[in-house]
Specification:
Structural class: alpha+beta
CATH superfamily of the largest domain: Type I PLP-dependent aspartate aminotransferase-like (Major domain)
Bound molecules: pyridoxal-5'-phosphate
Strand order of the largest sheet: 1-11-10-7-6-2-3
CATH topology of the largest domain: Aspartate Aminotransferase, domain 2
Number of helices: 11
Number of strands: 18
Largest sheet: 7 strands, mixed
CATH architecture of the largest domain: 3-Layer(aba) Sandwich
Length: 388
């Protein structure tokens, strides 16, 4: 099977080295960048930032969007706005990228790790529910951890590799316990749960535009929310909390210099124009992988009923850790980049003291999941959706 896989990858992407995911700039990227330089507005003030925010709000169906320097800073701000502070606990999944936990730590809070569902690789609502039933209690209005005595302030589920997790159910569990829901949709621009875009189920959500994500601004992030007062606060604290004044420098709280520069937003505007076409092409590639693995011992993860996936990174489940290692070494030795999933957050030295549940499924997936090449291929320098 691994031989057939390598030939299919070469058929799709050509015979050279095939990376896991690379950006594609075949639209108005260069034009908008040059316009931006010509306008002299290259930094954190400029039309393209506002335009990129408006386009993103419209696409995701959220009322407001606030652009930031990266996804991690966006998440840091969301947790800050959700009121996460020293000593609080924030529930998240053990199977995620380290940025999720770093942002929690920037607020001097501790992550608590919950297991994921096997079919979504995202937070399991039933594991969340059992954890809270066992360890949480409501004191006054809010949820506290009976074991640590700390307030459980927020919950951050993540849509792994663009596959939407069971966000509706997670949202009801959070509502029941009065826990703020902040969605890490860093990887899921273009993924929907029903008709609703991921990242819009909680009070706040974030998107990342790092170079390896589905579209890129070089580096960048976005806060999305339907709450006008949170949106105003988000804009304010990400722009050094400067009070508008024709010439005076007045800042009314400790702010952050987290606003996305106009240059990056120019790239983002051009990339958003390409997104629908990229989604189509990535779906075609995922379908080719599906046909290849169909009926074999290798399982290609697919979206659960009623959700749609952006196919950012196609992922497969091998039968065992040995099979995984064998697949990784064969493909990487043959010019096809494949990667295992992240080490669990609970195993990293910084988070090894954090509370977690059994993490049974996370451990199972960790030793079996592999990401396979998922970029939009170049065809004669141009995106082609006819012959991938
Ligand atoms: C990429 C990513 C982030 C952070 O985004 P950056 O823009 O790289 O800071 C956060 N969470 C997850 C799950 C990510 O994959």
């Amino acid at each position: 099977m691994k031989e057939e896989f390598v030939s299919l990858v070469k058929e799709i992407y050509g015979t050279g080295f095939v990376p896991l995911h690379r950006p594609v700039f075949e639209g108005n990227e260069k034009k908008y960048l040059v316009d931006c330089i010509d306008s002299n507005f290259v930094s954190s003030v400029g039309e393209k930032v506002t335009e990129f925010e408006e386009v993103t709000a419209k696409y995701t169906g959220s009322k407001f969007a606030i652009a930031t320097v990266n996804g991690t800073s966006a998440l840091h701000m969301c947790l800050h706005l959700a009121g996460v502070q020293t000593g609080d606990e924030v529930i998240t999944q053990a199977l995620t990228f380290v940025a999720t936990c770093n942002a929690i730590t920037y607020c001097r809070a501790s992550p608590v790790f919950i297991d994921v569902d096997k079919d979504t690789m995202g937070m399991s609502p039933s594991s969340l529910n059992s954890f809270l039933d066992e360890f949480a209690e409501i004191r006054g209005e809010y949820a506290y951890n009976k074991k640590s005595g700390n307030r459980i302030k927020a919950c951050v589920p993540m849509h792994t590799f663009g596959l939407p997790c069971r966000i509706k159910e997670i949202s009801s569990v959070c509502a029941k316990w009065n826990i703020e829901l902040v969605e890490d949709a860093a990887e899921s621009l273009g993924s929907f749960y029903g008709n609703q875009h991921t990242g819009t189920f909680g009070s706040l959500g974030i998107i990342s535009y790092n170079g390896n994500k589905i579209i890129t601004t070089g580096g960048g992030g976005m806060i999305i929310t339907d709450d006008e007062s949170l949106a105003i606060k988000a804009k304010h604290i990400t722009t050094t909390a400067k009070v508008p004044h024709p010439y005076e420098f007045v800042h009314d709280e400790i702010g952050f210099n987290y606003r996305m520069p106009n240059l990056n937003a120019a790239l983002g505007c051009a990339q958003m124009e390409q997104l629908p076409q990229m989604l189509d092409i990535k779906k075609t590639i995922n379908t080719q992988y599906r046909k290849l693995f169909d009926g074999s011992a290798i399982e290609l993860l697919e979206p659960v009923h009623g959700v749609s996936c952006n196919n950012w990174l196609s992922s497969i489940i091998l039968e065992s850790r040995e099979d995984r290692d064998d697949f990784l070494s064969y493909t990487n030795n043959n010019g096809v980049m494949t990667r295992p999933i992240w080490q669990l957050m609970s195993e990293l030295s910084m988070f090894s003291d954090c509370q977690c549940d059994s993490l049974e499924t996370s451990l199972w997936l960790q030793s079996r999941v592999v990401n396979i090449p998922s970029s939009v291929p170049f065809k004669n320098g141009y995106i082609s959706n006819t012959n991938v």
